[in-house]
TrEMBL record:
InterPro entries reported for this sequence: 4pyrrol_Mease, 4pyrrol_Methylase_sf, 4pyrrole_Mease_sub1, 4pyrrole_Mease_sub2, CbiE, Cobalamin_biosynth_MTase
Biological process per Gene Ontology, one example term: cobalamin biosynthetic process
An example molecular function term from Gene Ontology annotations: protein methyltransferase activity
Gene3D superfamilies cross-referenced by the UniProt entry: Cobalt-precorrin-4 Transmethylase, Domain 1 (3.40.1010.10), Methyltransferase, Cobalt-precorrin-4 Transmethylase, Domain 2 (3.30.950.10)
PANTHER family per UniProt: COBALT-PRECORRIN-6B C(15)-METHYLTRANSFERASE (DECARBOXYLATING) (PTHR43182), COBALT-PRECORRIN-7 C(5)-METHYLTRANSFERASE (PTHR43182:SF1)
Source organism of the structure: Desulfofundulus salinus
Domain Tetrapyrrole methylase positions: 5-190
Pathway info: Cofactor biosynthesis; adenosylcobalamin biosynthesis
Keyword tags: Cobalamin biosynthesis, Methyltransferase, S-adenosyl-L-methionine, Transferase
Protein's name according to its UniProt entry: Precorrin-6y C5,15-methyltransferase (Decarboxylating) subunit CbiE
Pfam short name (any one): TP_methylase
Length: 220
C-alpha cells in the first residue's frame, strides 16, 4: 500500500515550493487540500478533494483512494499547527511520508530580516485569544498565526486591554502572493483596521523594552 504523502507547500507560491515537494506533486494522482492550493497546484488529470469543515470525510476519501497515490497539501509546513496533527490521529507514522515546507512564520521573519530562534510561536486557530495574550506577556518576541475567529485587529485590541499597547507589531498578510502586505504598526492602530476577508496573517509582536530584536542568543 503506498504511503500517504503530506506535502508542505509553503505559502502557496510556486517560488517557495521545494524540489522534493514538486516531485511528490508530480507523481501524485490524487490531491487533497484547500481550495486555494488546489487552484495553484492541481493538474487537470488529478483527482481532488477540497478540505473545508469536512475532516472526517477527508479521511474516508484518503482511505478509499490510497492505492492510487494520495498527496495531502499542507499550508506552510505540515508539522507547524498544520494538518499533520489530525492525520496522525488516523494514520500511523509508517503510513505517512511527510515532506517539510516553508512556513508562513519562516517567511514572515525572513521578510523582516529578524532572527527567530528565540521566538514563541502560537496559533489562534481553535484557542481562546485571551489565553494567547497572557502567554505573550512573558515573551519578548512572538509569532502568532491568526484566523477567522481571531483576526489581527481582535488580537490587537486584546493587547491594548492587557496593557501591552507599547509592543511593536508587524502584521504580515497574504505572504508569498501578489497581494502580500506587511504593516509595521502598534496594537492601538491595528485594532482600528478592518480585516474583513483577510484574517489569515502572521503577527510578529516585539517587546522592545525587554528584548533586542536581533538578540544573538546561541549562535551555534
Amino acid at each position: 500500500m503506498p504511503r500517504i504523502r503530506v506535502i508542505g507547500v509553503g505559502p502557496g507560491n510556486l517560488d517557495y515550493l521545494t524540489p522534493a515537494a514538486q516531485r511528490a506533486l508530480a507523481s501524485a494522482r490524487v490531491l487533497v487540500g484547500g481550495q486555494r492550493h488546489l487552484v495553484y497546484l492541481a493538474r487537470e488529470e488529478q483527482k481532488t478533494f477540497v478540505i473545508k469543515n469536512n475532516l472526517a470525510a477527508m479521511v474516508d476519501f484518503i482511505r478509499s483512494h490510497r492505492e492510487e497515490g494520495v498527496a495531502v497539501l499542507a499550508s506552510g509546513d505540515p508539522g507547524l499547527y498544520g494538518i499533520l496533527n489530525y492525520l496522525r490521529q488516523h494514520f500511523t507514522p509508517e503510513e505517512l511520508e511527510v515532506i517539510p515546507g516553508i512556513s508562513s512564520v519562516q517567511l514572515a521573519f525572513a521578510r523582516l530580516a529578524i532572527p527567530w530562534h528565540d521566538a514563541l510561536i502560537l496559533s489562534a486557530h481553535g484557542r481562546p485569544a485571551g489565553d494567547l495574550v497572557n502567554l505573550m506577556r512573558h515573551h519578548g518576541k512572538v509569532a502568532l498565526l491568526t484566523g477567522p475567529g481571531a483576526p489581527p485587529n481582535h488580537i490587537a485590541s486584546l493587547l491594548v486591554k492587557a496593557e501591552m499597547a507599547d509592543r511593536k507589531v508587524f502584521c504580515c498578510c497574504n505572504l508569498g502572493y501578489p497581494e502580500e502586505e506587511i504593516l509595521e504598526t502598534t496594537p492601538g492602530k491595528l485594532a482600528r483596521r478592518d480585516f474583513s476577508g483577510q484574517s489569515y496573517c502572521v503577527m510578529v509582536i516585539i517587546d522592545e523594552k525587554s528584548l533586542d530584536i536581533c538578540n544573538p542568543g546561541d549562535s551555534r
